[in-house]
Amino acid sequence: MKFIFQTMPAYGHLNPMLGVAEELVNQGHEVLIYNTPEFKEKIEYVGASFRMVQLDDPRITIDNLRVLHSALTIADFSLRATKCLLGPTIAEIGREKPDCLVHDSLSLWGKIAGLKTHIPTVSLVPSMAINTQLIVSQTPLLLDDYVQAFSHPHTFFNIINKFRKSYSKKGLIPPLFFDMFSNVEKLNIIFTSRQFQPLADSFDDSYKFVGPIVYDRNEKQPGVISKKDQPLIYVALGTVYNDSVENYQSIIAALKQIGIESYVSIGKYINPSELGDIPSNVHIAPYYPQLEMLKKASIFISHAGMNSVNESLYFGVPLLMLPIIQEQKINAVRVEQLGAGVYFKKKPIDIPLLIDSVNSLLNESRYAKAAEKVGKALRSSGGAKKAVDHILNYIS
């Protein structure tokens, strides 16, 4: 069978999707993945065919994902992408005649294209599943989004209008605006476990919880790394919102005092020279291969993005979390509820408090035990093979 995959141009959305694509390829299916050129090598490595998309709006780039701090900016980005990609996606479906369209949960154009062409369509969800009950339950963490929406009513209603027109222009009845952030299908694959998902019982059988997608990403681990029986601290604050020099300086200062071998991924937006003197126990690089680091790490200092949380707990590694956007805050609260990490709320970063939090994670066994318990549920959820089983059962 033939599958078309559509996703946002973002590592956090593409990485788990690639594991599913690889499993489909291994089972003898043809997979076409549409994205921007920077992802070509990663796509082809898993055996899928890369197809380049043309984004005529200069504001739709991987770098501009860094400004998506709220529901309104995320919605605007998705609408811009839909304007560029909906027509070409429908045309590609007509040309390639796939058996199934697979899109991520923010790909509005994927959902509309599936409805318009009457093709079986699946949504892959790289975050928690969301519904009305979950949104209401997380109101305290979402207040910033609500305030922004009501303080910019013209922008808010303009986005709602554009969302509705995206459907009506294709002769379709638009769903509730809330669906823009989930793009629900008859089959929705969620990359976490039922145990980790808040209010899991409020989601019907169209939601399948398969856990994180862990696969060979063809990434080399650092040449010098601590022995497995020695403590190791891994730091990565994501590929999008990680450009605060002050945060990294504070973290590095804390790591110096702690004295444990530490690896800090600083991303591509920070010049190492901005960070000052780097202590001998701290190694910095634009990027470290996350899965390889987590196999060795004792704790993970993270922004609490869903993929990072999933992967850390998959390997039984407790987290110290410094979330930035609302989704990450919800993840951090959930990890803390399960006892598998610490949500660090003090901003700007208080170095002595950060040191205390790291030492607690290192020295109090309850965190590692809780992380291993959550990890066991994640590992037993089925992963890519289970996701593919659900997809094939759905379209057969």
Protein topology:
Elements: E1 2-6, H1 11-26, E2 30-35, H2 40-45, E3 49-52, H3 71-96, E4 100-104, H4 108-117, E5 121-125, H5 132-137, H6 139-151, H7 153-168, E6 187-190, E7 207-209, E8 233-236, H8 245-258, E9 262-265, E10 282-285, H9 290-296, E11 299-302, H10 306-314, E12 319-321, H11 326-337, E13 341-343, H12 351-363, H13 365-379, H14 383-395
Parallel strand pairs: 1-2, 1-4, 2-3, 4-5, 5-6, 6-7, 8-9, 8-11, 9-10, 11-12, 12-13
In words, what does this structure look like?
This protein is α/β, with parallel strands linked by helices and 396 residues long. The chain has two domains: 2-211 and 382-395, Glycogen Phosphorylase B (Rossmann fold, 3-Layer(aba) Sandwich); 233-379, Glycogen Phosphorylase B (Rossmann fold). It has 14 helices and 13 strands. The chain has helices at 11-26, 40-45, 71-96, 108-117, 132-137, 139-151, 153-168, 245-258, 290-296, 306-314, 326-337, 351-363, 365-379, 383-395, and strands at 2-6, 30-35, 49-52, 100-104, 121-125, 187-190, 207-209, 233-236, 262-265, 282-285, 299-302, 319-321, 341-343. The strands form two sheets. It has a seven-stranded parallel β-sheet, sandwiched between helices.
